[in-house]
Amino acid sequence: MKLNPPPRRKLRVHELAAELGWTSRQLLAELDDRGEFVKSAASTLEAPVVRAIRRDFAPTPAPPHEEDVYPPESYGLSSSATAADKLDKSFDEALRRVKSRSQSSPSGSHQSKWTPPVLAALLEEVVAERGSCPSSRDRKEAQRLHRDWAAACLCGLDDDEAVMIAWIRLSGGRRPMLAAELSRAGIAPEEAALRLGYGGREDVRWPSVYERFRDRKITRSEAIVAIRQWRERHRAG
User: Fold this and answer.
1) What is the 3-state secondary structure (H, E, C) of 93-153?
2) Cα(237)–Cα(229) distance, rounded to whole angstroms?
3) pLDDT, tens digit (0-9, with 9 covering 90-100), for 95-112
4) For the residues 119-138, what does the mean pLDDT come to?
5) Which of 22, 58, 181, 189 could cysteine-pair with 166, CB 3.0–4.6 Å?
């Protein structure tokens, strides 16, 4: 018989903080260090974030009270001294294996931390721009940009992760307010990436709509007109 897996549960910030014995402010600070954009203690955390926090900070269970301890004979044959010795040896061997793996890869605990997809995309763009392996400086720069992109969501940028990542790929992760301005006008990142000539015709000789808007070669109104003409031509076949 198969058991149904436990449901993936979301928690609010204050609920998880109470579970850990923290204040909401302490948990918000930890989430900010991880690159998570969380507005308040009433905000809901996704299941992967909750799991990562629990894995790193969940308190160890308290030892059982005396009245909860049962005599060894009540557990059957597995409670005998011989069986206990075997279990101790097996546990010791498993513990040694875990310790040897952790010593051979000291950075493993850091790498196991879950990274938000938007932050990961920004880190990739920062590393690609500098042409180097990720460093602490790159991670700090990516976190700063992550806060800028989160702020742009308050100015009209679509906060869907896939859409934000598409804008990041198009812009190299820079100047999120330009993406917010085009997004507020109803232009998708795939449309902003189009190279359009006169009348909404696709023409690879032209820079993309986004590049022309970024370089102030066209205004937002002209970008809207170009995309509208392209849509009409696209619908007409």
Assistant:
1) HHHHHHHHHHHHCCCHHHHCCCCCHHHHHHHHHHHHHHCCCCCHHHHHHHHHHHHHHHHHH
2) 13
3) 676 666 555 544 444 445
4) 87
5) 189
